[in-house]
Amino acid sequence: MDMSHWKGRHLIIGTMHGKESVLGPLLEENFGLKFSALNEFDTDQFGTFSGEKDRIGSPLEVARMKCLAAMEICSVDLGLASEGSFGPHPEMGFIALNEEYLVLIDQKNQWEIVVKKSSFDTNLAGQIIDTEEELLSFSGSVGFPEHGIILKAESFNEKILVKGICDHEHLIEEFRKLKGLGHSILAETDMRAMFNPKRMAVIEEAGKELVKRMKSQCTQCKTPGFGPVNAHPGLPCKGCGFRTASILYLTRMCAGCGYSDQLYYPNDVRFEDPQYCNFCNP
Questions:
Q1: Which domain holds residue 34?
Q2: pLDDT tens-digit profile of 62-91?
Q3: Digit-coded pLDDT (tens) for 4-32
Q4: Total of domains in the chain
Q5: Is there a single domain that holds both residue 105 and residue 19?
């Protein structure tokens, strides 16, 4: 498979949160790219997880904006950026879901490749904290200090935010300082990639999926990035045969010529377990 269209080219990764540490080596090893990160690039202008600024579009739109902005600043024609999203699963609202979008833009060849990786393995959490005992219990439950913590306080019109706390001494010090001012304190997990190994692992998995997509060429025009754009439910239940919400097939499409096809049974499973059937297990 000819990968010469990427070999030796400069890829800019638009991030200020260390994502190049897992994304760059994957692309360099597989395609011979030379990568660098625009670490001074203020990606917070597009929105923050900690709430100072609302996101200015969907995760995919923001990832695309980051990518294009970094490419323009560095005057390069190949860029990569990501954006994460956290919230309740759309069907199982009691379970938190992490979705990571990657956008690779190749302006030289007029290609855009998008991948999304979803994971339930996230420590997204927040709790009102009144005592040091509660703080230590919360920190222990979210994988601190390997995973960072944010302390938020609000009193009257004053808002205080302490981010990137990664050691116990600093955590207790900031808590006592805020408590001494009489503030109500909210402890949250720091979801920025460089302070959250669980999220960084999902970004790395998204990077591996991107590598597969970059190697997947359209059977008609050879444009890279051929892959799924829609997932269609309907996998039959092994018990009753009724359609379930599990994926029956994927629609794959070429961003170059528009050719599409359907890939049935993408998980190599032809029937779903009855425990996931709304009829057998309502």
A1: 1-123+196-215
A2: 999 999 999 999 999 999 999 999 877 655
A3: 889 999 999 999 889 999 999 999 999 99
A4: 3
A5: yes
